[in-house]
Backbone:
């Protein structure tokens, strides 16, 4: 007697096996990923409070001006470092770990080390914020954390590197997807960058004239060689997954990756255009900044052409909506960044709020919005729980999305005026300070909207974790656009 | 691509090329060790300036004030009297950190010690910026001052004015005198005369036109 197995049943079995494998990977990843996301969100909220304080102080300096630990010059670097190393870095690690596990089809092992890593990063950020507010900031931009905080963060990153390498070694044979290239490179680039500058600027500082080039080499590369690759990796994964169609072009993804690796690392000195360094150094960075158009266009074509195969999905899918917003911001911020290296524009915008607008278009409208989208995708999968409220997701998207666009607009317009007035010696300096006040006030309003969005998100997040698991539920969709 | 090692080697190769150019080369060029202050100033003065540099860092002055003068071909810093020549890297060789800055919410401070050479002005400005600079958004640094009773009717010569009339003693008979931190910060500010010394490398290259 023979048992006939129909091809349909085989296919079903294969699907079931694959589903079980994914469930096993997600179960193994759940602990560390939730630990990273929850920590990241804590730092996002603290970072938002510090941001609001710094922003309001810039137009209403009398606010809370009695205490030394709340002075503008301490609150501002505390904002930057908590959102960079608390929120963005920890969220990037959570997203990166989960993507790596799924793409290598390898379960995370020894997750105790990853919990330890999250703990060290949290302690590092805590020590850093206390250090800055307590009057021990280094005042080196992007590296304000005092020495002990930097050591904790550097040590906390090592288990993450190890976990990535471990998953890469156990991967299923075959082609390596573009997201994995970005993730593997980024997980080495970040510690190399961070430990280099910690050693040469904080543990044993080199002569002062040699510091600014390495300061901006780091501060620019941490964006392009850490946050950007992790977020591009997530976009390369999520867009095709959500619309169920492959990425537009394999060759363009190769061009995008290698040209980013090649040109980005040389960009940093454009922060010192017009500054006290030899022309060849700054000229090289200007050229490299312009060359960034190559990876940006390659990635833009790939992301946008793929997304437009089913762009209507932005109406219903929370992840897709955030990711599409973020990828468009990436294209915009990168082209803007290249243009800002040009002498004629740089002369106007160099020392103005235009640069702050640009950095928020990058770190917020691109990186943060993409991380939000990725968390909307990943968290239900690792917890087996769905997002509790479509309304909260809509509030989150519109407050943050419109908020950041308004933020960037206010500072870009104000920044260009500020630059033109600075170049016109007939405008006295105090007049520029006064004329900038309305733009800075608008920025505070935009920041408030973004903070409301963050509160909606953390409410969703906590509510989701408190729910009981619903194994066979349907995803929470937005149902309507606004 | 089927192998991680190509990605790995490529990513490290591109990374270290820039590392050599933008990290190692400046270190070789400008020296690996922080230099001591030039021997001109007496030792206690030098230590005070170093301490002031730390107060400047701790309170984040760098987020609103640059310390770099751009060349006349690149803006009009000279017309705002921020410096007579452009800054060069060697101008920072006596510092621990080069506070070049990236934002001009406030004016450039490269030569503030030359432009505003009165310690009393700086104390007053730090205590209440609006009293010396109308329209300023600089935070008041009252936490850098100590509240002390007036003894034997003698007001400390460094006590700051507390109101528009210039009264230096409040209703309860107290004055505000600069703390050790404020003294160090002002000593540092007064030492900022970066582009006073002529330097050959600051001369503009002959125009190609």
Residues:
């Amino acid at each position: 007697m023979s048992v006939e197995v129909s091809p349909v049943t085989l296919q079903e079995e294969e699907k079931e096996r694959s589903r079980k494998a994914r469930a096993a990977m997600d179960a193994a990843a759940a602990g560390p990923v939730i630990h990273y996301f929850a920590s990241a969100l804590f730092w996002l909220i603290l970072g938002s409070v510090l941001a609001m304080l710094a922003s309001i102080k810039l137009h209403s300096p009398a606010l809370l001006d009695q205490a030394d630990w709340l002075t503008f010059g301490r609150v501002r670097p505390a904002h930057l470092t908590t959102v960079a190393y608390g929120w963005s870095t920890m969220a990037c690690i959570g997203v990166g770990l989960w993507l790596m596990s799924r793409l290598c089809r390898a379960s995370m092992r020894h997750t105790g080390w990853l919990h330890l890593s999250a703990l060290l990063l949290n302690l590092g950020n805590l020590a850093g914020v206390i250090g800055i507010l307590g009057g021990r900031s280094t005042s080196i931009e992007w590296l304000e954390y005092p020495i002990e905080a930097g050591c904790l963060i550097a040590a906390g990153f090592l288990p993450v590197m190890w976990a990535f390498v471990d998953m890469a070694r156990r991967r299923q044979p075959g082609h390596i997807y573009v997201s994995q290239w970005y993730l593997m490179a980024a997980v080495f680039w970040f510690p190399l960058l961070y430990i280099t500058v910690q050693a040469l600027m904080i543990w044993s500082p080199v002569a002062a004239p040699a510091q600014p080039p390495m300061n901006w080499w780091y501060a620019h590369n941490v964006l392009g060689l850490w946050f950007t690759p992790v977020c591009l990796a997530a976009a390369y994964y999520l867009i095709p997954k959500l619309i169920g169609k492959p990425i537009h072009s394999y060759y363009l993804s190769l061009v995008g990756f290698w040209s980013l690796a090649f040109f980005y690392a040389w960009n940093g000195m454009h922060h010192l255009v017009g500054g006290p360094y030899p022309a060849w150094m700054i000229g090289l960075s200007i050229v490299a900044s312009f060359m960034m158009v190559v990876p940006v266009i390659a990635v833009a074509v790939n992301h946008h052409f793929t997304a437009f195969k089913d762009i209507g999905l932005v109406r219903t899918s929370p992840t897709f909506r955030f990711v599409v917003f973020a990828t468009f911001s990436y294209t915009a911020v990168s082209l803007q960044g290249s243009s800002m290296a040009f002498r004629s524009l740089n002369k106007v915008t160099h020392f103005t709020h235009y640069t702050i607008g640009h950095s928020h278009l990058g770190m917020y409208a691109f990186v943060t919005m993409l991380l939000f989208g990725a968390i909307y995708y990943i968290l239900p999968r690792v917890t087996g729980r769905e997002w509790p409220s479509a309304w909260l997701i809509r509030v989150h998207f519109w407050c943050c999305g419109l908020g950041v666009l308004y933020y960037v607009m206010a500072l870009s317009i104000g920044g260009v005026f500020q630059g033109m007035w600075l170049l016109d010696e007939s405008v006295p300096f105090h007049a520029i300070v006064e004329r900038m006040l309305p733009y800075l006030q608008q920025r505070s309003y935009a920041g408030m909207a973004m903070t409301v969005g963050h509160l909606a998100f953390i409410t969703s997040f906590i509510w989701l974790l408190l729910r009981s698991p619903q194994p066979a539920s349907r995803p929470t969709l937005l149902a309507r656009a606004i | 691509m089927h192998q991680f090692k190509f990605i790995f080697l490529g990513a490290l190769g591109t990374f270290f090329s820039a590392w050599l150019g933008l990290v190692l080369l400046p270190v070789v060029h400008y020296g690996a060790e922080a230099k001591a202050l030039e021997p001109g100033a007496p030792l206690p003065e030098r230590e005070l300036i170093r301490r002031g540099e730390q107060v400047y860092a701790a309170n984040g002055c760098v987020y609103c004030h640059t310390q770099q003068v751009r060349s006349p071909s690149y803006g009009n810093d000279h017309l705002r009297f921020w410096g007579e020549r452009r800054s060069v890297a060697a101008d920072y060789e006596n510092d621990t950190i080069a506070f070049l800055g990236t934002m001009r919410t406030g004016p450039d401070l490269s030569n503030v010690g030359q432009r505003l050479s009165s310690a009393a002005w700086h104390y007053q400005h730090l205590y209440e910026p609006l009293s010396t600079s109308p329209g300023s958004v600089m935070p008041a640094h009252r936490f850098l001052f100590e509240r002390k009773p007036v003894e034997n009717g003698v007001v400390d010569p460094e006590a700051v004015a507390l109101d528009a009339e210039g009264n230096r003693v409040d209703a309860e008979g107290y004055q505000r005198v600069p703390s050790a931190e404020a003294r160090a910060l002002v000593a540092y500010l007064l030492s900022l005369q970066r582009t006073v010394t002529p330097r050959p490398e600051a001369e503009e290259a002959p125009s190609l036109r």
